Amino acid sequence: MLVLEYDGTRFCGWQSQPDGRSVQQAVEGAMSRLAGTPRKATAAGRTDAGVHAHAMPVTIAMPDRWSCADLQRAANALLPIDIAVRAVYPVQDSANARRSALGRRYRYTVATTVQARSPFRNRLAWALGRTLDLAAMQRCADLLPGLHDFRAFAAVGEPKPHYRCQVTEARWNHDGDGCAYFTIAADRFLHHMVRMLVGTMVDIGLGRRPEGDMARLIHLEHNGDTSPPAPAAGLAFVSAGYPAELVTGDGVSW
After folding, report:
1. What is the pLDDT of residues 153-191, one digit of tens each?
2. Would you give the DSSP letter of residue 36?
3. Which of 24, 39, 82, 237 lies 20 to 30 A from 48 at CA?
4. Which residues pair with 171 in a beta bridge?
5. Angle, vertex CA 24, rays to CA 29 and CA 195, nearest 5
6. Whether the Cβ atoms of residue 117 and residue 38 lie closer than 8 Å to each other
7. Strands (DSSP E) along the chain, which ranges?
8. Which residue in the list 48, 133, 187, 213 is annotated as catalytic?
9. What is the mean pLDDT of the chain?
10. How far is C-alpha 105 from the chain's CA centre?
11. Is 175 a known active-site residue?
């Protein structure tokens, strides 16, 4: 299992696509060179274009000759500058970064001051540059923990067996650096779910829509009344959790 950190600005997302630069293609290309044969990588989450990752677990089968430390050094020598391998762990042969995950955590960053215009900040945050009512937004976030049907906060696309997600954490905070942060953890996430939740809560925080809309939207079976999704630049995959027995030995990390 590789744990990746990447800046998603110049990627079309995690998943390989015929006409775009993807994280998956870059990782599989580097690992295939090191293995001497084609390799297939599976990530815990399929981030969209422009979305970042701080610690994205990725499972990939590699020859036994590679120690964790050697693999980390070699991979970081081959990967592009906007991807880094933070850690490598030996895992069970059956491990799958997506299917084995017990939960995932994302964080969304909204820059709320005039400094939001900075090119060093707006690459990793929604450069909103306006004050938000974080108390109202937190009251909206307080409605999210538990098992809910999040159909109203899912992009229209291929039908799914169900739209239920078990949210275990949802909170807004402000660290005094001109940014508001939304952290959410759940067993699974729907396509655009976090960005649509943030877009709706920011509209409430700006007074563009009533606070009571959040409770109403959670019970809708369509996304027609949901605010547009927040920009991709503010979203980052933070971590995923796994059963302790998945890791079979000592790994290496920064």
Report:
1. 999 876 788 999 999 999 999 977 889 999 999 999 999
2. S
3. 39
4. 183
5. 160
6. no
7. 2-6, 42-43, 52-59, 83-88, 103-111, 126-127, 146-149, 164-174, 179-186, 235-241, 252-253
8. 48
9. 95
10. 7
11. no
